[in-house]
Amino acid sequence: MKVLVCIKRAIDYNVHIRIADDGSGVVTDGVKHSVNPFDEIALEQAIRWKEDGSVDEVVAMSIGSDAVTEQLRTALAFGCDRALHIATDQPIDPLTAARTIKAVAENESPDVILLGKQAIDDDNAQTGQMAATLLGWPQATFASAIELQQASARVTREIDAGLETLDIDLPGVITADLRLNEPRYLKLPNIMKAKKKPIDSSDLETLGVERAPALTVEKTSAPAQRPAGTMVDSPKALVSELKNKGLL
After folding, report:
1. Which end of the chain has less neighbouring CB within 10 Å, N or C?
2. 177 — alpha (psi -120 to 50), left (phi > 0) or beta?
3. Cβ-count burial of 234 within 10 angstroms (0-12 exposed, 13-18 middle, 19+ buried)?
C-alpha cells in the first residue's frame, strides 16, 4: 500500500505576520518558513502507518519554487521514502494544486492521498476536496481518527454538531485535522541523512497541468485595531455602559 502526502511551504506559525508597505501582501523575505502544520500532521500519520506495517511506501510531494525542497527534506527526515518537487515560481491556487495532485496520483497510483485540511496562510480548505472530485475518488475531510484497512478506511471527522464516522473505499483522499495526532520531534541524525537523499523534480508543463485562472490580490491590509476597553466599578455602571453602546 502506498500513501501520497501533500505538503505546503508556509510561514511558520510562530512568526508575527507583517503587511508589506505597498499593501501587495505579507512580508516573506527573510521570514522563517515551515511545513504547514496540518500537513505535518498528515506526514506523521503516514509515517505511523509505515512503522506499524500498514503501508509499504510513503511519498511526499510539494509544489513551488526551489525553496520548498527545504520542507521536502523535512518530510524525508520524518521517514518518507521519496520526495517529489513540482517546480513553479508562480503562486499556486487550490484548483491548480488539485490538478497537480491528480496528475501526480495518476503517475504514482497511491492508495491514499493524505494532506492537511487547510493551509494556515490562505485558509481556503479546498485542495483536498477538489483533488478528490477531479480524481473521482471518495473523500473524508477534517479527520481526527483514521483506521486504515486493506481496501477501505474508517474515518472519524469533526463537524459542527460533533463527530461523524465514515467508511470510504480506497483509493481515497483524506484531510487531517488538528486532533489526529501530535507530530514527532525530528532527530538530528535523521535530518542529516535527509540532506543527502535525492528529490525528484518535475513541473506543471511536464505533468500536463493547466493553471487555473489567476486570482488578483487588489490590496492586503491589517485588521483595524480594537478600541480600548472601559473599566467599570460596579454592576450598575456595567449595565449603564452597555445601554450607552446599544447592547442592552
Report:
1. C
2. beta
3. exposed
Is cis: bond before 189, omega within 30 of 0? no
β-pair type (33-35, 9-11)? antiparallel
Cell output for 4? 501520497
User: Which domains are delineated in the chain?
Assistant: 2-244 (3.40.50.620)
- For residue 33, the SS3 value is strand
Buried b (16+ CB within 10 A) or exposed e, 171-193: bbbbbbbeebbebeeeeeeeeee
Instruction: Tell me what pLDDT residue 211 has.
Output: 86
**H helices present in the chain, as ranges:** 37-51, 69-78, 94-108, 127-135, 188-194, 204-207, 235-244
What global pTM score does this model have? 0.86
8-state DSSP, 27: -
pLDDT tens sequence across 200-212: 999 999 999 988 8
**Overall average pLDDT of the 7-15 stretch:** 92
134 close to 13: Cβ distance less than 8 angstroms? no
- What pLDDT was estimated at residue 216? 79
